[in-house]
Amino acid sequence: SNGNNNNTRSHDYVENIALETPSLSMAAMQSEAMGAKLLILTMLHAKVRRDFRALMSHRPDVALAIRDTINISLTYLGQRISRGGSSGGGGGDSGLVAPLCSSAAAVAVRHGGGGIAELVEVARSSLAASNGGPSSQNSNLIPSIALVVLSCLPEEAQASDMGAAEVDKALYSSVGQALEATYVSLVRSLSGGANSDIPTCLKVLEHWCGPCHVTLSQLNVPLAVADAGVVGDQPSFLTLLVRILSDSNPPSEEILKAASKALAESIMQPSDVGTAARAEAVRIILSAIPSHGFLAAPLAYCSSNEWDEASHSLACLASDLATEEVETIAACQIPGCAEIVEILLRLQRHPFQPVAISALEFWLALQDIPTEERHPSLAAPLFGQLVDGLVTRVSYPPTFTNWENEFELDCQEFDEMRRMVADVLVSSYFLLRCSYLEQLANVIQSSQSDQNGWAATESALFCLCSVSREVCARVKARGVGTVAADRDATARGLVQLVQMLCQGGAETAARRHPLVLTMSASFLGSYAPVWNVCCSAENILGLLQYLVAAVGSSPKTSAAAAKSIKLVLIGCSSKLLPIASTIS
């Protein structure tokens, strides 16, 4: 009932907002509960998005009254927040800033006739006045609100019914003013130790970089802004971002997240790829890793303080940078290339699953670079380390029993990780060949005597199953020289591995852990073409007996075993048919 009353009051308020005295509109809401205020402003935003353009055509007086009400309400809200000060009296009102600023931006976008430029100028002049610049009648927003308004404008423009060309024109005409105002606020906040506005400044940069295609090269150009308050050469946006992302003791998780996303947005802009200006910007970023701890220092801090979301943002930035500049990284001819690869290797082992997933894209991009164009350390040695890391990364916890009793590991994220590493494992196999199988066989052998080694065994078997199609093709390949040597070594290694796995039968594997038996069964089916080439009919019958024994286990194991029985019967039919009459 209370929720229905709130909805009714919110609907009435929005419908009648243009009929109220504009200067009293926010004041009239002060008696409402915070939830009702948020609902009112959220509905206002939705109605502006839906109806404002039609109002401008049919009832321009109502539309202008709504615009004036919102603008004056922003000023009123800023005054309340300012009066609250550090005592927190205006703390509750801070939650109203985002929806009200979104409404103001939605009005500006749909107002036409330079509405975006007008609102950007209001925000710019307000920020300039707060930084000691000249004030005007438009300088009526406090800095935190002015910055949120700027950050909302690109999103509202893209969400409107304007055409793409019209959106680009409206934003391009104002991007210079918006970023200059943001730059001044960011520089002053960084130099004065006022951290509260830094994340919003960085969000403004991020939100304008995408739709306005602000490139990495452009971020590296110093802005000639007179009132930035910098003595000597003014740093570029890129310099400021690198400085923030090299801090070994960052002031907040939000600052790291916002800075990472802003820099990543420019890295992903393709229009300056291949230019000398971008190459210089990339050199500055990469060289900051060994010289200033760029990425490495904040990642270490995030890991020790369990800032998982900031770690994820930093990981996405590292992956985007390395993937977009993979040719530079692969050549490893400038400082920082080897270091960013090492960072990505460490991220691959990060306990927070989304962080580990973020690093996967780079390995696939690197695999597309011919080995002769890579530094020697970025070929087989690197991918050997990567496989070791992935075996650990896709392992179950040693204490795992089933998903119903697992509270630390997310089933969906775990399955997604295993699905995504499959392509990386295939790429690793093509580079390592027989060494890939030997590496995983060593993991299985060394984990046999360890009570908790079942997880490593299961994970290594998963990694073998992921490349079964490619390995089977290698065993059946014709050729001489290195191809024949690798083929024969692969076949011998697989036969030795299956002998080790089947010792003691299915019961031994099940005692270690049901998941070991499940993956062992899948392994036997996946490599059926190899057994047909390398094993006798009697040995293949032994494999089938192993699988039949596994059918009586858990439903998941039974399904895997039944599928593998079918694969072995089909794949090894040429060996089994001659002795079919002798099988009772």
Structural features, described:
The termini are far apart. The longest helix has 29 residues, at 164-192. The protein has helices at residues 2-16, 25-29, 34-58, 60-84, 91-94, 97-111, 115-130, 143-159, 164-192, 198-209, 216-219, 237-244, 253-267, 276-292, 296-305, 308-324, 326-331, 337-348, 353-358, 360-367, 380-393, 411-432, 434-447, 454-466, 468-475, 482-502, 505-512, 514-526, 528-534, 537-551, 555-571, 573-576. The protein is mainly α and 584 residues long. The chain contains 32 helices and no strands. Mean pLDDT is 88; it is low at 10-15, 17-24 and 85-90.
The residue ranges in which pLDDT falls below 50 over 5 or more consecutive positions are: 10-15, 17-24, 85-90
Mean model confidence by pLDDT: 88
By DSSP (H or I, 4+ residues per run), the number of helices equals 32
Helix content: over 70%
From the helix content, strand content and strand pairing, which structural class follows? mainly alpha
Gyration radius from CA atoms, angstroms: 31 Å
**Percentage of residues in strands:** under 5%
Largest sheet: none
Distance between the termini: 75 Å
Gross geometry:
elongated
Tell me the total number of β-strands.
Answer: 0
Give the tags.
584 residues; mainly alpha; 32 helices
Structural topology:
Layout: H1 2-16, H2 25-29, H3 34-58, H4 60-84, H5 91-94, H6 97-111, H7 115-130, H8 143-159, H9 164-192, H10 198-209, H11 216-219, H12 237-244, H13 253-267, H14 276-292, H15 296-305, H16 308-324, H17 326-331, H18 337-348, H19 353-358, H20 360-367, H21 380-393, H22 411-432, H23 434-447, H24 454-466, H25 468-475, H26 482-502, H27 505-512, H28 514-526, H29 528-534, H30 537-551, H31 555-571, H32 573-576
